[in-house]
Structure formats: C-alpha cells, structure tokens
Amino acid sequence: MAKVMMECPACHATVEAGGRFCPRCRSFLANVSLGRSASPARRLAATIVDWGIVIAAGEVTVGNVQVPSMVAGGAAFVLLAYLAWWLLLLSDGASPGKRLFKLRVIDDTGHPASFFTMMIREWFAKVLSAAILGFGFVWALFDDNHQAWHDKILGTYVIETDPVEIQPVRRTGTSPMPPAATTVGGVRRI
114 falls in which pLDDT band (50, 70, 90)? Predict the structure, then answer.
C-alpha cells in the first residue's frame, strides 16, 4: 500500500500525511502558525517552575521551616495568589511555568486545551505518568509527537509558541516534489 505524503507548510520537507508534527522542523502541521512541538527540556523546566513555587511556599506556610509568622503569612498569600493565577492560566492551555517558557497545551484541532481538560491533565493524569517511576514523563523522549502518558490519555500536545525561523528544504531541480509522485491538493501519493 502506498504511503500518502504531503509537504510541510513551514519547511517544505516531505512528510507522511496524517502526522501531527513535521519530523524535520517540529511544526504543527495542521496550523504552522501555532508553533512547534515542545522540547522535553523546556517541558521539564516549566514543570520545575510550576511545582517549585508551590513546594517552596507550602514548606514556609505549613512545613517545618522555622520563620516568623509574618513571613509565613506572606508566603501563604503568595501561594494563594500563585494558585489563583495558575487556575486562570489553565483556561488558556498554560500554567505559570509553561507561560514563562512560552509553551501551550493544545488539543488535536490546535485549540488551547479546555480548563476541564487542563485540570484533569495537571491534577490526575500526571499522577499516572509519575506512578511507575516517572516512566510516563520519560515516554515523551521517545514518542514521535513528544507526548507523555498524560498527553496521550487526554489527546493533548505541548507546543512552543515563540517564533522560530525555519529554513526550507533545498531541493535540486525546479519541482518541489520528486517527479515519480502525484500531488493532489498538497497531498503527495507515492
């Protein structure tokens, strides 16, 4: 059976039709203006920020850290303000760490993940990713779309939203597609 191929709108590489991201430039194929697949390193950095602030403020307010009550009260305020901001950002498919590192969670159609999807993703599905020695998070390193288990469960993708200059593929000859292929509506059939 012949594979159906298409051209990446961002870098003009030939990619298999039906994929979510271009393997060459990591652009979201359905709408390249949205961004590209987020690198696992940026995802990890965003997660560290998200949980680092909560853990630090929680330790000061209810933990064993000996601080004056005024400092503990200030930390409690910071924790509550942070959680309120975090909840607000969820409706845009982000979290404070993701916003800082210019990441966004989208669904299959490219729309920001809904508030409900983000709540389930952040509070329940990530627990499943962490349950077996964190293997669900490590999975993103080997997945073609960089999806961790919690992304696969909810059909979400994490993208980088900052603009990046993508170099187009250089082709020899005048035709962007090899002559042995038939192209119909931007889809190439081999």
Answer: very high
pLDDT digits (tens, 9 = 90+) for 131-175: 989 999 999 999 988 999 999 999 999 999 987 777 777 766 555
Beta strands in the chain (DSSP E): 4-7, 14-16, 36-37, 103-106, 157-160, 182-184, 187-189
Supply the angle between the helices 40-62 and 135-142 in degrees, to the nearest 10. Answer: 160
Assigned token pair, 56 = 């630090």
Total number of residues shown for the chain: 190
- Give pTM, 2 decimals: 0.78
**How many secondary structure helices (H) and strands (E) does the chain include?**
7, 7
One-letter amino acid identity for 145? Answer: N
State the Cα–Cα distance between residues 56 and 138, nearest whole angstrom. Answer: 25
Distance, C-alpha 5 to centroid of its chain: 25
The DSSP string of 11-56 is T--EEETT-SB-TTT-BBTT-TTS-EEPPHHHHHHHHHHHHHHHHH
- In the beta sheet, which residues pair with residue 183? 188
Sorted by sequence, the CB contacts under 8 Å of residue 50 that are 6+ apart come out as 86, 95, 96, 97, 98
